[in-house]
## 1
Amino acid sequence: MYDVAVIGAGPTGSYVAYQTQKAGFKTIVIEEHPSIGEPSFCAGIVGKEVFERLSLAEDSVQNRINFLIMHSPAGKKISLVSKKTHACILDRTSFDRQVAHLAIDEGTSFLMSTRCTDIVTNAGHVKIKLATSPMSETEIKAKVCVLATGAFYGLHKRLGLSVPRDFLDCSQTEVEISEPLNAIELYFGREVAPGSFGWIVPVNSKMARIGLSTKRNSTFYLSNLISKKEVNARIRDKKPILRRRIVPVDTIEKTYLERLLVIGDSAGHVKPVTGGGIFYGLLCAKLASETIINAFNNGGINQRSLRAYETKWKKIIGLELKVGRFVRRFMNTLTDENLDNLISTFKNDSRAKNILEQSHAFDWHKDIILSLLKTPSLSGKIYKKLLWNIFNKDEAYA
Ligand SMILES: Cc1cc2nc3c(=O)[nH]c(=O)nc-3n(C[C@H](O)[C@H](O)[C@H](O)COP(=O)(O)OP(=O)(O)OC[C@H]3O[C@@H](n4cnc5c(N)ncnc54)[C@H](O)[C@@H]3O)c2cc1C
């Protein structure tokens, strides 16, 4: 019997496995794909804190950027140069493999091309049903299981767990570019990405990731963005391959059971404003491994000992997620005129612009949002819009 079985070899699953195996607990990771980190679908943007807080090497960083250009629906532009921090652009395949190798080097077993089809809790252990093909089923036992399946929720329903209530539909492609880009570009507007935004992320001097998140039909909107004159002129690939995936922007109701913890996208540990889940997912993976190690060392695995995980993550990111969800719902209600107005305000008000440019907090949005709300030129517009939404019972607030 294994001590810990982790379902999913994304960064969060591999990170838990690395920590529990390092602490001396026999750990196995189950992954349905044949190769870790593939297929790759992510823009790979993280702040430096992910390496510092999780003690990870920066080997998978392909690019570092401190320059951001925001495009408003009417074509207004604002350029922001961050003075205190920069975005690190990851090669996600190599990052996922880097974290998995830390676990493998400690002695964790990885079972690839193997899908977990069911998890049953029994007295003293969990039984994990596995399929390598529809005709070949087997099972393993573990004292505790960690669900790190990303934005796939089939097992949640079988386990009686809830699923997130809100998602972003995302599409992305990686393309060859005709000239080097030095800024991350964000595109806003109802015609580009309703309720959210599109992005161009320079990977290196030859390649960029172009993607967007929205409520639905993300591939349709991404095709439109790519065909926009100012975007298309910079792309060499004329038939890019689009990859589509959902991202949760809401947490599940309960992230622990008698012998199970839920982490990463599987739990909804994602920044609601941007859809970025690598940092919060890994932060919670660390808390999950600490909780499991603590439970093993102090009386064993049970619902009471595992509950500490949820208490801890709520304390660290709970309020951030609440504020982020509110902003996401607010973003949903913005008209193109509102967006043009807001972007003009950032452009013309040095105090508002400074808040964004001087911020250290790449991954912590709450304080930036609260500071922006104290800026007179912005707060007037935002409060007016909020009141309008409330009195008009906008569906995003229903
Ligand atoms: C287009 C796009 C762009 C993004 N850009 C960013 C970004 O710039 N920055 C950022 O921080 N985040 C970004 N994200 C989000 C980020 O990719 C996720 O938050 C992150 O991958 C979550 O890691 P995870 O380990 O929880 O899940 P995943 O990385 O999704 O890993 C889950 C693993 O579980 C496996 N699995 C699932 N079900 C089973 C099963 N039943 N049996 C066995 N294996 C299973 C899957 O195959 C997968 O390998 C983006 C997402 C998308 C879609």
## 2
Amino acid sequence: MLIGVESEITIRVADELLMFLPATRRDTANRVPYDGTSTLGHIVESLGVPLPEAGPMSIGGEPAGPSTRPDDGDEVRVAAVPRPQPVPLEPGQDAPRFLLDVHLGTLARRMRLLGLDTAYHNDMDDPALVAQANAERRVLLTQDRGLLRRRALWFGAYVRGSRPDDQLRDLLDRFAPVLRPWTRCTACNGELVPVDKQEVEHDLEAGTRRSYDAYGRCADCGQVYWRGAHGDHLEEIVREATELVEAVRGNGRTEPRCRRDEERGWSTSISSWWEPRSSRTDGCSARSGPSRRTWRAAGNCRVGRSIRASRMRTPWYASATRNWRSRCGSAAGSAATGG
Ligand SMILES: [Zn+2]
């Protein structure tokens, strides 16, 4: 490098990463000044791309890593993260665990609906998020680029899309995780366990008691679940998600992470209970349970009951109930307890 002559390198980033660059530099080929000492990782981040979003890099066609130091005039290529992206799993774990940033509450509930282990709090600051993600080996999902630049973070990912539907699609396309729909509490992420109808009968309104036989209860917060109103909307989410994950895997981009579950054929008919969030108010008159108290405090009980009462009168509700029963056959209860 000649004194007084500034070094430069050329960086070509994949189209998928252009969104991270400032508008004025949103070009696949960027010539940037080079100080002769910075690493590739530092240069890529300076350009605006968080390292967790950068895929394989190369210099002059040769593979390079974030710690590589380029030479003057080098041409660097930065690919997007390959999809589906593998996540290191702990022993006994067959799907990644996730932690969501504070503004992704709706996405968190949808992920729990699909059975993904999803931690979420609406009041955590960045250091606390990084600490929990690292301690519990959870993939931190965020739309905060600054958070993804934190060196201490073990595994993070940027969630694309402003609508929860798009965010969920992006997440499923990126990780193609094993799904277990209808097995988690959307409120607290606890696992649902089968429970006898007699045990929860006193918590139910008459209409619910008459219509459903299979129930589950959240092992953590005690919320009771059954298949209820809005089931069609939730089932649509589950169906789309399952098809998307199957399509991603079917493209040969990954092997199923848990062969046992593939053979077992998880489906909505195996875990047959579910009470969607909007009808959780059914349990408001019950005697105990933290989430019921929360809902009562939030003033949702009366509204929820009236919505639910109107649905109880509609043919849709009756036919939804019939369909569910016919899918599960006479083993509606035992299918649930077997799941
Ligand atoms: Zn719960």
## 3
Amino acid sequence: MGIHCLFNNLKGSVDKWLVKLSLKKNRNRLTCKEFSEMVHYFIDNELSTRERLLFQKQLEKCTACKEQFQVEQEIVNLIRSNVKKKEVPIALEEEIRQKVKIYELLQ
Ligand SMILES: [Zn+2]
């Protein structure tokens, strides 16, 4: 597993709950703050269908969000093309997994 991938998994586990907690049902529009919290998940294709639709709607409606999305995507592309080959030591990966598991149990 590459370091960027591992970082994403870790960040994903922690942040996703926060986003989903704030994303209440029956909403048909994201705030700019929610949009900015979801950008990475959109890029990594980790949103649900509903979240994805809300995200795309906001992307069309808000220029600031659209600009942020383009910048984030460029950064992610840059990271991906540069860190792809670096591997995380197995022991570190295992330690992080354990911590994520504990964090998940606490939710
Ligand atoms: Zn916006």
## 4
Amino acid sequence: MVLSEFVGNEEVIYEISETMKNRLLPHAILIEGVKGSGKRSLARILAQYAVCSAEGDRPCGVCPACIKAEKGIHPDIVTADGSKAGELNIEAVRSIRSAAYIKPNEGENRVFLMHFCEKMLPAAQNAFLKVLEEPPQNVLFVLTAVSATSLLQTIRSRTRIYSLYPPSVTEAETVLKKMFPDKDAFLLSEAAQNSGGNIGAAIELLNTGGEEEKKTAEAIFRAIPLSTEYALLTETFKITKDRSFAITVLERLYELSAECLKASCGAKNVSPVALELSKTLSKKRLQALFFQVQKARDVLKYNVNLNFYSTWLCSVLRRY
Ligand SMILES: [Zn+2]
């Protein structure tokens, strides 16, 4: 990720990009902001900047150093997380202090990313202060905390503080669309809204759950070959619960029918459920079903009445 891809907080980002262009980044930066405001993303960009080997604008995002930084495997970038036991206690801070004087392995600079700095006890903060007072050359410290005030004034006065605010719901939606180009736009917008624009929380919403949707999709699939329509109707009716539920069920059903079709063509890397279900219908029927589900999934993108839709879905899935 490069700075221009950072969403929201335009003023801070503009200031940082100007500082980067002029190569005037200070040796210690403190980023404050609530969860989901982008502290870690910004910290990662700053670290990338410090190790990037490009001649022009840094970070370039494409040089080997940037790629290593992005993957979290650059040897000159050290991360310590105060929320994890022992990572920012006094001993840990002392070892960060001595590591700061070691020459960089690969690039021009060494970077120390220190997250959850509010967890640092005053003694650890004082130990850290020593290295801030006489910073070694070619070192960048990036500290993150919910609030800068949780750190000692002596530390705050020796760092440049950038305050981040969570992106708006619309900005969050833009980010999510970039991150999940394959996911339904309605689902993404729901996740952005339900998380109040907090991207971390929105990703959690998109990734967690879904068990019920998966089960419903499987139940619908199982009911397709049954002789009576009633069983299928009972299952498709379940999607009338709400729109985002219906969209996810159809998405799962689409994936499942694609997998079953693959299984019927002899593919090996399919789930046991798909393998089992693929045997309940003929290959020709599976092919037809795949297109029927695809069509049904697309129809749901229009603002259709869910009750009518569930009945229609049942009839479409039973069509041979
Ligand atoms: Zn680079």
